[in-house]
Amino acid sequence: MKSLRVRAAILATLLLAIGAVLFIVVEREEVPPPLSTAFAFLCDPARVEARYQSWVSRHERAGGDQKVVIPLSWSKAYSRDFTRTKGVAKLDLIEGSVTIETSGQGDSNLDAWLVENTPGPK
What we know:
- The protein has helices at residues 2-25, 35-42, 45-61; strands at residues 67-72, 86-92, 97-103.
- It is α+β, with helices and mostly antiparallel strands.
- It has two domains: 1-64, no CATH class; 65-107.
- The longest helix has 24 residues, at 2-25.
- It starts with a helix and ends in a 19-residue tail after the last strand.
């Protein structure tokens, strides 16, 4: 009877020790602050606007965007068939011209589309 009590006491002590270790070791998940609080803390709208206007003036003084290069590749959303064709579209905003260079199309004819990404119907 006495050895049964000793065994039960040892088992209870071991279970408590394991529970205490798990309680200490296992990290508790912290609840992040609401998103609105984070934005209010990080972002002063007047400051963002002032920095944007500063960038605009520096950008225009430096000549602005004269040449823009846009990578081209297959798009699941806009292409019917898959192709490994890749390329670049080079826009010259001063002269108003577009040059498209492609590779990997073989003998096939290609179309280049300018897609205006706007929200669809709700």
